[in-house]
Structures are given as structure tokens and as C-alpha cells.
Amino acid sequence: MMDKLFIKKWKCAGGQVAGLGHEKFNIPGQDRVAIRENGLIKSIALADGAGSRKKSQIGAEYITNSICDISSVKFNTFYSYSKKRIARRYKNIILNSLKDASKMHSLRIDEMSSTLLFVVTDGIKYIAGHIGDGIIATIEKGKIVMLSEPENQEFANVTYFTTSPNIEKHLRIYRGYLKSKTGFILMSDGAADGLFLKATNTFSNVILQINDWLKEYSSDVVSKAIVSNLNSTIRRKTQDDCSLIIISEVKENINLLSKKNISYLRDCLNMTRRDAILKRVKIIKYLLNNESKKGNITSEFGLTKKTVAKHIKEIKNTIITGDN
Amino acid sequence: MTDLKIREQDLVDNPTPRVPICLVLDSSYSMSGEPIDELNSGVELFFESVKNDEVAQWSAEICVVTFGGFAKKLLDFEGIQNQSIPTLSADGNTPMDDGVNMALDLLETRKREYSDRGVDYYQPWMVLMTDGEPTQDIASSVYRTVQMIDSKKLTIFPIAIGDGAHLHTLEQYSPSRKPLRLKGLNFSEFFEWLSQSISRVSQSTPGEKVELDVDGIKDWAVL
User: What ipTM does this complex have?
Assistant: First the structure.
């Protein structure tokens, strides 16, 4: 039975780089990404600043941070609303965020236009939102599936932005239970140039490759790898800025935990202190080998009953049964 | 441990977004001699400039329509790598309405082909150059052109060649952008400016308003 126990965790990784076209004209990159983890609730957001607005990266930064900060606290409340009400809430988050940015940086709101893509999940259900171009896709049973397409107008350099009139018509909201979804990917249109083939509506398997990195490496390591690959390879397919975030369910066989490195365990167990991580792994191993002797943990590890109860509760919250 | 590197061959290749440009050029009898020779040099320079631009060469698609005696499609839209530079000759009267209507039809057909093949494109450009007055009613082509410009589906550059061309006629095609008169026979300077403008468009990203080189206009236009 113990060999079919897994720790389930949703891990996030992502980053952005300036486009070759922007570098040529000495314009800073205008894409921004944000990631927040609040217990079981994970929020990711990506915004692509409008090319003509010189400070659009400021707007992109503010709205991605606000969307993630508020979503990680209000997710369950928002999920209980109708889609229309969810859209109104997010529209207000966007506008308030841009007003804050406007005050702080003495900019007009329209100077900070951007597209917006976001996903929030608690591992059971999700909310996603999309304004403009870029793509939101999901991973389901090993395949990449389009969730939200780019909304372009007729021409290549025209799309909708957070400051466009009638934003409520162009803010697309998706929500539901995850069911067989085990991952979400957000990509800007620049990144999509190398990852999504428009003629056949198919994705590059590079996305699954990046997804698999999260099964072996910590989120930090994968984020750095994403940025490195955006820089060296993906942005060569376009002149535009490129950004990508992935959130993925990772299942780790409990029996293999002690073989993993500390940075991976830090991520997997959502703990920061090395000594606490090592203790948790030992407790898990002890429980695996001595299931009938749970009561002896306090003496075995020299811990108080309260501490042991906390460890067991947190282990139970993250352990699932099932095949790998 | 897995290598954290992506191979370029595992990425997909999407076609570059296209900029369709239609040159609608007066080749009537009055263009004979030096004007048509200079226009041919300018067109040749334009093609060479675009071919040598690392971004525009993959993006710009050029079509040439002439109107001299009758409207003629001298060159259809295609990747510039596959095109031969056309040579214009001057003859006949000035059927400008037929020329512009033909150009608009070709642009619409090309946009449909882009959509059918999943190719993105920028707003099309039309360059209309004439040295005289049309010898037919231009109401239908003016109506179509202005409709497209008003709904932001087309950008037009109306250029008058010499003193015989009336700016008033060209103004009818261009409600927002004033027509300009070419300085002498400075076709080469105009087409050099045009190829650089196309390069800027080819590199533009969503939300970017492409700023044309307004300063550069004085190299080829009477301001």
C-alpha cells in the first residue's frame, strides 16, 4: 500500500525576456509574469505591454501582481460567483491596480496598456481569465489542449488591451473543476510564435518537455531554465518579447523522497528550513516502515505530541494514493 | 538528470506576418522619357532595398499595377525572393479608376489567401503615383478606397509627379493624409524612404503605432 502513496503538489515556474526587436531599438522588455502560492492556492499571471506605450511594462507589472495577490486570498469567494460577476471583480482589480500605478508613476492609465492572461487553482477547481492575444493552454492526459485563443483584430499588430473600451466584452473568463487537467500554460504571442503552429492549431512538444522538468527540478531551477531557453532559442522565432508560465501537478512517490535533493524537497514539501525538511522526510520514512507504531514517533524523534500531530496533518494533506 | 535545454528544431515555424503593398503607378504617355526611366530606377531600388532588409524581405509582399491606356497587373503578390523586378513602359491615356479598383481587388484576394492559410498580416499599403489627371470618372475607386481608409483597413500614400498632377484629385483618395508632390523626379529617394517605412512596420508588435520617418519625407517631397 505504501508504495502507492504520493505527495501531490502544484508547482509553478516561468519568466520573461525582451524581444530582439526591442533590443535593437533599445526598448526595455514589456512582458511581465507573476506567481503566488498561498497554501494550496496557486496563482499565475502574464501581461504583454502594448508596444507603443513606453511605460506599458509598469502597467503589466502592477496588474500581474494585483491579480495574483488578490486571487490567492479571494479564490474561493470568486469561484462561488457567476462568470459575469467574476469578470466584474477582475475588471475592478485591473482598473484599481492601474490607478495605483498611475499615481505612483505619474502616468496616464492608457500609457500602461497590456494584454492579460491568468489562472488560479486550488488543485481541485480553477478560474482563468484572458484579454487580448497570447494563449492559455491546459495539459490533459499527456496532451496540450487550447483553453483560450488569442483575440486579435484583423491585423497582426492589433489586439485588445486592459485599457480598451468595453473591456468587459473582451475579458474572457473560464472556470470549472480540474477533472483531468494536470497543468496550465500561459504564453505571450511572442513565445507562441515558436510554440504554437497556427496553420494546424497544434502545440510544440517542448511544452510537455518543460512540464516534465518540474517533476525533477525545483520551481526556481525550472524558472531559470525557462528564462535561459526563452533567451537563447524561443525568442529567435520572433521580434517580440517572450514570456511563459507553467503550473503543473507533480506527484512524487513517497518512497523516493529521500533520494531527492534539498531544493526539490523544499519545493515539494513547501518548507524552507533544511533541518525541518530532513525531519519531515525521516518521519515519512518512519511511518512507511512502521505504520503500526505511529504512537512511538514522539519518543523516536524527541518531538512533542503537538509537533508530531502537525507533521502528520500536513503529510495527510499532501498525500494521495494512486498509480504514478 | 534531464538536460534543461530546448532544441530549436523542436520549435514550430510560423510564417512571418506579411505587409502587402500595392504600387499603383501611372504609365500613361505623358510619363514617357525621363519620368518613366526614373520611375523604373526607383522601383528597382525599392525591390533591392526590401530584399536586403533582414526583416522586411520575409514580410513585404509587393504587387504592381500600372494604368496607361488600360489597367494592368504587372506583378502579383508573392514573396520578394521569388519576384523579378518589373519594367514599366509609358503609353496611352490615364485610366486611374480601373487601376485603383484592380489594386483593391488584388489586395482583397491576397488577404483572403492569407486568412485561408493562417498567415497573419499587417494593414495593407497602397502607393498611388500619377503625373496628370485621370481620363475617366474615378468615383467608384474613390468610394471604395475612402471606405477602407475610414474603417482603418488600408493606408494610402498618394504622390503627385510633376506640375501636371492635380493634388485635388489625389486628395479625394486620401481624406486624412494630404497627398505630396514629388520633388522633381526623386523616385529613388521616395522608394528608399518607403522601404525603410516597411521595415518599421514589419517589426511592429501589438499596440505599437508605427511612426513613419516624417523628417525623411523632405528628401523626396515638396513640403
Answer: 0.82
